[in-house]
Design brief:
about 350 residues, alpha/beta, 3-stranded antiparallel beta sheet, about 15% strand, globular
């Protein structure tokens, strides 16, 4: 288990959080890697939901103003982006925003271009743990995943992932599909509960994890298919216990939704670094490098905190009190061996489909 010795900061990239306001930010010439181009287009596939919205609302307008280039945006999830990398290898988008769960696989299969940090000045400002797989990715946010609950339906904050298996919570649970990385983490957490081993060891016992996860289905758990569905289930109380990414739901909570995160789960919260990744045959490399550079600026990285309430990559961005409240002490955020899990994903998918398919 990789945890931080400082109880106020998360592990792996201690202090990946920041202070944000909702006002627009100026990310102009100082963050452009090379002289701005007066024309051109950048094709970007962002993740989804409120995470993608931050880039669309805040970064893209600043990028277009600074470079004169147009940003074309799609939204997707890691598994689908990996499939796109393969099917569109000769004519891919210029950048894809997916997590460490996909970086190892994509780099191994020769689908990514290694990040050239010399062309990205702000790359020097990110915490080492955000430099994924030997700089095949530029980590921009830690999209921590935990168990969220509807505060009207459940009055006591969950203290363990194991509470999802309690008879008292029968038919109150929705879990992510295996195509989501958080779905894979449900298997590793189930392995923790089944074996009693610490996460660092238990994550490799996928068979034990899947057997225990099958018991969750017997407890009436269903799988959700998308972020809006999961948020609606939580907000309405229809399904009041749902594992979810804080970056996708924290802004909804701040607007008054009766939802709260479990911040002190005994088995740990799930850290997952999401980065900007450049396909090997990207056409607009210089613009892509500028987009990465602006995403790593201190000004934009502060928005990771104040809008998404998530750990930030920038070493000079400190966690705000509100972010600390949403994440808890930070010393119980655990990180998976995604190299191992990526290699075993086909097996996991088959096992999961046999139970929940």
């Amino acid at each position: 288990m990789k945890t931080s010795p400082n109880p106020s900061l998360p592990a792996r990239g201690a202090g990946r959080r920041a202070i944000l306001r909702s006002a627009p930010i100026a990310l102009a010439a100082p963050w452009v890697a090379r002289p701005a181009r007066a024309s051109g287009e950048l094709n970007v596939v962002l993740n989804q939901g409120l995470l993608a919205k931050l880039w669309i609302d805040e970064l893209n307008p600043a990028f277009e103003k600074a470079t004169g280039a147009k940003v074309n945006v799609q939204q997707s999830v890691t598994a689908n982006m990996l499939a796109m990398l393969k099917t569109q290898r000769d004519n891919p988008p210029d950048l894809m925003q997916f997590s460490e769960a996909g970086v190892f696989q994509a780099a191994k299969e020769g689908l990514l271009r290694q990040i050239n940090s010399r062309n990205i000045p702000n790359f020097a400002t990110i915490r080492p743990s955000f430099r994924l797989a030997g700089d095949w990715s530029a980590g921009v946010i830690d999209a921590v995943n935990t168990l969220f609950y509807n505060t009207n339906a459940i009055k006591t904050r969950p203290a363990s992932w194991g509470e999802m298996w309690d008879k008292a919570n029968e038919r109150k649970i929705a879990i992510p599909p295996i195509t989501w990385n958080s779905g894979v983490r449900m298997v590793t957490t189930a392995a923790q509960l089944a074996t009693g081993k610490p996460f660092k060891e238990a994550q490799y016992d996928l068979d034990a994890g899947m057997r225990h996860l099958a018991r969750l289905k017997q407890n009436g758990a269903i799988a959700f298919t998308g972020a809006p569905q999961a948020i609606q289930m939580l907000q309405s109380g229809q399904t009041p216990l749902v594992p979810f990414y804080g970056a996708f739901i924290n802004p909804v909570i701040e607007k008054g939704a009766p939802i709260a995160p479990a911040t002190t789960l005994a088995e740990g919260l799930h850290g997952e670094v999401v980065g900007l990744n450049m396909p090997v045959n990207a056409k607009n490399v210089e613009l892509a490098e500028t987009y990465i550079n602006m995403s790593l600026s201190r000004e934009f990285q502060q928005k990771i905190d104040s809008v998404l309430r998530s750990p930030s990559a920038h070493r000079d961005v400190s966690p705000s009190p509100k972010t600390m409240e949403m994440l808890g002490p930070g010393n119980n955020i655990v990180y998976a061996d995604w190299k191992f899990l990526s290699e075993n994903r086909p097996k996991l998918t088959e096992m999961w489909n046999n139970v929940f398919g």
